[in-house]
Design goal:
The protein is an alpha/beta fold. The chain contains 13 helices and 12 strands. The structure holds nickel (II) ion. The site of nickel (II) ion has 5 residues, from loops.
Length: about 375
C-alpha cells in the first residue's frame, strides 16, 4: 500500500508523518500525534482536518479515501492543557530523575527513524538483550566500551529500521529475542576458527532468538551500522534455510532488495536533516536496487564459492514486484531483458521457503545437535 506524507501542526510546531496510508484510522493518527509531540499516552488531543474532528479514540474508519495530491495538514490541539503543563513540570523537576530518564529513553527510541516509525504490532522482535561489560568478564585495556544502555538503543534502532519493519511484515516474522552476542565468546570462536570468516551472528532454533556481534574487536565502539544490519538480514534468512546454499542467498538477496527499496521510497522523509537512507548509512550511488543488491551478493557469495548470476532472475523479479506494488514510485530503470522469465525461474515463494524450513528442521532433528547457524 502506498504511504504518503501528512503534516501535524501543534502550537506552531510542525511534524511530518510518513507511513500514513489510506487505511490509517483516527485512532492510529491519535497515537502517532502523541508520539510525534512526545506526549503521555493518556493525554487528550483534538485533531482537526478540513474543519472536521478526528479525535475519537475509537474511530476505526480510514481517514483518507484516496492518496491526497498534496500533503494534508492536520491541526493538533490539546484538550486538557493541564496535562501537558503537568508533564513539562515533571520533566524539569530534578527530584524525579528516574521518570525523566525513562522518558528520554522512550523518546530517543522513537526518534531513531522519526516519530512515526515503530515495529509492527504483530510481526516484530519481542525482546532485546544487551551485554553489560560485567558480563564480558573483561574490560578493554584502555578507554571504554559503550554502555549496555547504548547497545540496547542500537538493537532497538535495528528493530525499528523502516527497511527491517517492512521485511518483518512482508514475511510475517516474529523473533523472540534480538540480543547482543557476547564479545568474549565471539573472540574464542575466532581464535578457534582462524579461517578468515568471522562469526558475526547466531540464529537459534529458526529465529526464536537472533544474536548479533555489535562491538568492534577492540570493544571501544560498535561495528558500522550497515554491517550489523547486513548480519541481521543474513540471520533472518537462516530462519528458513540453514545452509549457505542458493536458496539461502536468493532469500537473503530478496530481503536486501526489500530493505533498500524501502529506504529509497522514503527519500523524501527527512529526520533531523537526514534521509532514512543516510541514517542507515546506506550509500546509494544508484537507485537501481537490482544492481545494488547484486554487487553486494557478489562479495558475500564469493566466500562460499558461489556467484549471484546463478540467482539473478529471482532477484530481478523481486525488484520488479516491489516497483509494481509501490506503483507510481518507480525508482529507476531496472535492467530487465525482453526474455520471458516466468518459464525459467521464479522467486523463492513462501511455499518454497516453508519446505526448505521443514527440511532443515528434519535434518536438525536427525543430527539431534544444536541448531544454531551463523
Ligand atoms: Ni550464516
Amino acid at each position: 500500500m502506498t504511504s504518503f506524507l501528512i503534516n501535524l501542526s501543534f502550537q506552531g510546531k510542525t511534524v511530518a508523518l510518513t507511513d500514513v496510508t489510506t487505511s490509517t484510522t483516527g485512532t492510529d493518527l491519535h497515537r502517532m500525534a502523541l508520539v510525534a509531540f512526545s506526549m503521555e499516552d493518556g493525554a487528550s488531543l483534538k485533531l482537526l482536518y478540513k474543519g472536521k474532528r478526528l479525535d475519537q479514540e475509537d474511530d476505526t474508519s480510514p481517514i483518507f479515501k484516496v492518496v491526497p495530491k498534496k500533503a494534508p495538514k492536520i491541526l493538533v490541539m490539546a484538550t486538557s492543557s493541564s496535562q501537558i503543563s503537568d508533564l513539562q513540570s515533571k520533566r524539569s523537576d530534578p527530584t524525579i530523575r528516574g521518570f525523566d530518564q525513562e522518558r528520554t529513553t522512550v523518546q530517543k527510541k522513537e526518534l531513531h527513524w522519526g516519530p512515526t516509525t515503530s515495529q509492527d504490532k504483530n510481526y516484530k522482535f519481542c525482546r532485546f538483550q544487551a551485554c553489560t561489560w560485567q558480563s564480558f568478564g573483561h574490560r578493554p585495556t584502555d578507554g571504554e566500551t559503550p554502555h549496555a544502555f547504548e547497545a540496547m538503543q542500537l538493537l532497538e534502532k535495528l528493530a525499528t529500521d523502516p527497511g527491517i519493519v517492512a521485511i518483518m511484515k512482508e514475511r510475517e516474522l516474529v523473533v523472540g529475542t534480538l540480543g547482543e552476542m557476547d564479545p568474549i565468546d565471539d573472540r574464542l570462536m575466532q581464535t578457534k576458527q582462524q579461517q578468515g570468516a568471522c562469526l558475526l551472528g547466531y540464529n537459534t532454533n529458526g529465529g526464536m532468538r537472533i544474536d548479533l556481534k555489535l562491538r568492534r574487536d577492540d570493544l571501544k565502539g560498535f561495528r558500522p551500522y550497515t554491517e550489523i544490519m547486513a548480519t541481521l538480514i543474513h540471520e533472518l534468512s537462516h530462519n528458513w534455510v540453514g545452509e549457505h546454499n542458493l536458496l539461502f542467498w536468493t532469500n537473503f538477496g530478496q530481503m536486501r532488495a526489500e530493505y533498500v527499496h524501502t529506504h529509497l521510497r522514503l527519500r523524501s522523509t527527512v529526520v533531523a536533516g537526514k534521509t532514512t537512507a543516510e541514517l542507515a548509512g546506506l550509500k546509494l550511488e544508484t537507485n537501481n536496487v537490482y544492481d545494488f543488491v547484486m554487487q553486494e551478493l557478489q562479495k558475500d557469495m564469493a566466500q562460499h564459492g558461489l556467484h549471484p548470476n546463478m540467482i539473478a532472475s529471482p532477484i530481478e523479479q523481486r525488484c520488479r514486484e516491489l516497483d509494481e506494488t509501490h506503483g507510481g514510485q518507480k525508482l529507476g530503470s531496472l535492467v530487465v531483458g525482453s526474455t520471458d522469465l516466468t518459464a525459467t525461474s521464479r522467486p523463492a515463494t513462501a511455499r518454497d521457503l516453508a519446505l526448505a524450513a521443514a527440511e532443515q528442521r528434519a535434518k536438525e532433528q536427525k543430527n539431534n545437535g544444536k541448531s544454531s547457524q551463523s
